[in-house]
Amino acid sequence: MPDRALSTPLDDSFERYLQDKGKGRGGGGGNYRRNAARELERFAEWAAGDRGADDWTGIVPDDVDREPTFDDLDERVFREYARRLGGDRGLKQNTVQTYYRYISAWCGWCVNEGYLEAHYAQRASAMAPLPEDDGRKPGDQQAWTSEQRHVLTRHVDERARDAVEAYTTLPEDTDPLDKQRARYAALKAARDRALVFVLAYTAVRVGELLRDPNDPRRRGVRWEDLSLDDGSMDVYRKKQQWDAASLPDPVISPLRSYRQLMDPPTERWPVFPTFDQRTLAGLVRENLAERGERPEAIIERRAEYARDLLLALDVDIRP
Questions:
Q1: With the C-alpha atoms ordered 221, 223, 225, 229, is the resulting torsion angle positive or negative?
Q2: Is the separation of the CB atoms in 252 and 231 below 8 Å?
Q3: pLDDT tens digits, residue range 257-285?
Q4: Tens-place pLDDT, residues 164-223
Q5: Is position 180 within any domain?
Q6: 3-state secondary structure the chain
Q7: Radius of gyration from C-alpha coordinates of the chain
Q8: What are 44's strand-pairing partners?
Q9: In angstroms, how far is CA 170 from the centroid of its own chain?
Q10: Which of 156, 155, 179 is closest to 169 using CA atoms?
Q11: Given pLDDT bands bounded at 50, 70 and 90, which one contains residue 239?
Q12: How far apart are the first and last CA of the chain?
């Protein structure tokens, strides 16, 4: 193996590896890339002596002043890191296994790319300190029971009904801003109800419904993806392809009521937009400025609305 590869600092390989494993254009997206980057950074800090017990000085010999390189790696290093994952961080068994797999996958890639001569992380002695895998992945949970589903859907249904009734029964002489506040509250409750009903009565995951800023392909479900008459919805599945999901009868009414209340300006609007005020305020200011409005006019325009979401709906600024 070339000496140049062995003398390469560990983190010099990270970006190339993450690009190979990332999704989208240039390998810049994807949850795997984000999670792997986090664990590689932790591994590099540990290898340099910045993480671990107080007496841990890293994998570089004490009489050498340099950052860790590939020449410092062997199965004993990965064995020590496996022991550190399993003990020092107090992680669950399946989480320890998952975090170690990120490092092991990088190690295998390094072998293929010529940085290492052997896949040290997969050797039995390296993996021996790892706890047994219980077969579950982080985030796994049992499905809701019928009683749990009933209690939760009843709760969000009652909240939405109360909020919508409070808005639709306002006197005609209600102050415009007060009427907007009531509509906003009704919209938020109706959105939450629709989201809970979709999750409760379909096999769709929340990650398939909402936008993921780390994966450009997961743009979130839009109204154009729904066919309430046919009872179907197109979603980008976890298996990384578009697929049709069935919308059973209990889901249709909450979605239809929510859509009527929202009255989206176009079919490309998200079904479940953010209600975060800071995010929406920045989005509204930026879009109105791009449309040529002066700062003073933007301030006046926003003052006419109780919430930026309502302004965004009126002028079609998609959150």
A1: positive
A2: yes
A3: 999 999 999 999 999 999 999 999 999 99
A4: 999 999 999 999 999 999 999 999 999 999 999 999 988 888 888 888 887 777 888 999
A5: yes
A6: CCHHHHCCEHHHHHHHHHHHHCECHHHCECHHHHHHHHHHHHHHHHHCCCCCCCCCCCCCCCCCCCCCEHHHCCHHHHHHHHHHHHHCCCCCHHHHHHHHHHHHHHHHHHHHHCCCCCCHHHCHHHHCCCCCCCCCCCCCCCCCCHHHHHHHHHHHHHHHHHHHHHHHCCCCCCCHHHHHHHHHHHHHHHHHHHHHHHHHHCCCCHHHCCECCCCCCCECCEHHHEECCCCEEEEECCCCCEEEEECCHHHHHHHHHHHHHHCCCCCCCECCCCCCHHHHHHHHHHHHHHCCCCHHHHHHHHHCCCCHHHHHHHHCCCC
A7: 26
A8: none
A9: 38
A10: 179
A11: low
A12: 52
289 and 255 in a common domain:
no
| Residue that terminates a domain, selected from 100, 127, 154 | 127
Ramachandran class of 292: left when φ > 0, alpha when ψ lies in -120 to 50, beta otherwise = left
Plot region of 24 (φ>0 → left; ψ -120 to 50 → alpha; else → beta):
left
What is the C-alpha separation between 49 and 39, in angstroms, rounded? 15
Q: Which domain range does residue 94 map to?
A: 3-127
Phi, psi of 48 (to 5 degrees): -85, -5
Residue 133 lies in a domain: no
| Structure token pair of residue 280 | 């929406």
* Sequence-distant (≥ 6) Cβ neighbours of residue 279 within 8 angstroms: 319
Q: Which of 186, 206, 207 is nearest to 196 (CA)?
A: 206
Contact predicate 66/60, CB 8 Å: yes
Q: Which residues pair with 211 in a beta bridge?
A: 219
Q: Is residue 20 in a domain?
A: yes
> How many domains does the structure of the chain reveal?
3
Phi-psi region of 64 (alpha: psi -120 to 50; beta: other; left: phi over 0): beta
